[in-house]
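[job 0412] stage=complex_fold ligand=2-acetamido-2-deoxy-beta-D-glucopyranose status=START
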Amino acid sequence: MKLHVLISEFCAGNPTKNIKWKNQPKRKYCSNHFCFVLFFPVVLFFMLLCFNHLFFENIKGFVYFHGKSTGSVTYFPGKLNETEDSCLGRYIYIHDLPERFNEDVIKDCQSITRSTDKYSMCKSLENSGLGPGIEALNASDLWKNSWFSTNQFMLEVIFHNRMKKYDCLTDDSALASAVFVPYYSGLDLRRYLWGFNTSMRDLSGIDLVAWLARKPEWKRNSGMDHFLISGRIARDFRRKSNRKSDWGSNFRLLPESENITMLTIETGYSKNDVAVPYPTYFHPANDFQVHQWQEFLRKQNRPYLFSFAGARRSRQKGSIRAEIIDQCQASNKLCNFMDCSLFNQCDDPLNLMSLFRSSVFCLQPPGDSLTRRSTFDSILSGCIPVFFHPGSAYTQYVWHLPKDHNRYSVFISSKDLRVGKVTINQTLLQVSKDEQLAMREEVIKLIPGIVYGDPRSRLETIDDAFDLAINGILKRIKVLTKN
Ligand SMILES: *[C@@H]1O[C@H](CO)[C@@H](O)[C@H](O)[C@H]1NC(C)=O
Ligand SMILES: *[C@@H]1O[C@H](CO)[C@@H](O)[C@H](O)[C@H]1NC(C)=O
Ligand SMILES: *[C@@H]1O[C@H](CO)[C@@H](O)[C@H](O)[C@H]1NC(C)=O
Ligand SMILES: *[C@@H]1O[C@H](CO)[C@@H](O)[C@H](O)[C@H]1NC(C)=O
Ligand SMILES: *[C@@H]1O[C@H](CO)[C@@H](O)[C@H](O)[C@H]1NC(C)=O
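[job 0412] stage=complex_fold status=DONE, emitting structure tokens
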């Protein structure tokens, strides 16, 4: 043992052996007595260390002295593994933002509610942001406890609540591979989108980046390791002019903001925005609920070849929706149309899910923007999505959907449709039963990765939309901060 050699070298009563001490007058003071006094505490320390090692190794939450030069102390999740820290490279630090950037925004939940919301945002905040639980029509287990009337804008709150339970959080930002900024960007903006001047809409974004840039965490990588989440599309934060009539805020055009990666439900052309799935109604609490739902979908009877839930966009020039609705109605034996301009029937999750569950294909044309929440509702129902624009999914959800989009979806060019080169029913009738089956199985397999699990529990082996987003962000930041 090294310690033993050390002690014997210094205290064997033959100090001349030690070259370092040779010819040094101090040598004579190293009497055996002195050495004992000097080394006794050292021996005691090593003994304690061994004792500790033998008896406390298996205790959860054991304080582990991290080997990094920072000398920081962290709590080890789960069993101590001396050879490898399972969180290494995955540590995330959450900025402790002033409450005006998050808690205060949702505290005033009436101010973020609009008349078009099915529920007030106060109700949507229930259940950690999942919204009110869906009351089942009958006591089927499938509908119990894991289905909620979730408002898509609540993604910021749901994601933040998941982040708080992330298993590799650290209080030491020097150890972190990424820094999460829990700013409720979209909810904050929602208060000022209508009837407010541009300075009101821009205020909190400017305030936020000023706060961030003053922090030591910023200086390390100029914010390149920071990320945040938005439940609104990226375009809402890229207002080009200061005219009041222009839409949105300028948050993502601020120089500091551009260095932060924003996870958003729809990206534009900016390289620092990455799309993640819209939240659906299903928020499983455990793996079993996911598998049970997948099994249920495999056995579904799907009497309709295709369906569409949506409304016309008469004010929008060049919208393909009118054509799609016309074609759906013209093939009424094959297509089921749910008109969302009537009685808010599309706001009812049970209605919508049962429409999609009884269809083989679900049409997903662009709406006000290129993407739709409906795309994820259709995947969740095992209904094969049909896209009319590559920006509706293929160029968006690169961490969550497979690159080979023919495996799980059908693409129909809007141009061909408009000029009458193709019809929807003919295109879909050409897909054989076997191909349908294979595609549906792909879609059903995508479900775990596009749902956000209930933040109050923990999925065991499944990587859900949150987990995939975190894996993606860690890989991305690693590349960004390398040079
Ligand atoms: C500890 O980490 C090593 C290296 O990754 C691994 O091979 C080993 O299985 C781990 N042991 C435990 C108990 O997790
Ligand atoms: C309720 O039960 C009936 C009969 O078992 C079933 O056909 C129906 O799909 C169920 N409804 C829901 C919402 O699960
Ligand atoms: C914007 O509106 C706020 C209140 O709504 C007002 O206090 C402020 O002066 C306005 N700013 C400009 C530049 O008009
Ligand atoms: C953004 O990041 C780049 C590259 O790291 C850096 O040069 C620049 O100063 C950063 N911008 C701000 C406003 O911090
Ligand atoms: C297919 O669609 C066309 C027009 O979109 C329609 O005229 C035709 O009747 C449809 N065929 C069937 C079998 O529904």
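The chain has 18 helices and twelve strands.
[job 0412] exit 0
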